[in-house]
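Lab notebook: predicted structure, single chain.

Context: the supervisor wants predicted structures on file for every construct in the current expression panel, including those that have not yet been purified. This is the next one on the list. No modifications to the sequence; it matches the entry in the shared construct table.
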Amino acid sequence: MNTVALIGFICALGVMIMGILLGSPLEIFFDTTAILIGPVATLMLLIATFGFGTVQSAFGTGFRGLFFARDEPPHPEQVKAVQMVAGSGINYSTLTGFIGGLIGLTQMLTNMADPTAIGPALAVCLLSAFYAVAMVMFVYYPMARNADQAT
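Prediction complete. Output recorded below exactly as produced.
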């Protein structure tokens, strides 16, 4: 097991969660609309681009290699698949975060007459961007970095 990577990952996630908890309850950072626009849409785009099997294999290979010691080096085709999925995941996640921001802003501006509707729309806007950054930081960059180190 790669304890340094695991400890670093847990500490980074813990610091982020602690920062949230110092200012607000954690549950306000969960928004179904933003989750659908960001992480779910990103995953669906990856599956549409590469197929379910390739995406599943890339995630498995990427995270196994990051957190667990390798008995043997991964096959070059597996490394290439992880690199392609991780690179596309970074791009798709960024784009879906931006699209979620636009959707939230549009909803907010459409409902300017109703002040109670502005908050949920602003949450979609900001949380879509938050989820995009979190996915890139905690999923796709580690996968890409691990694949680059395997070559």
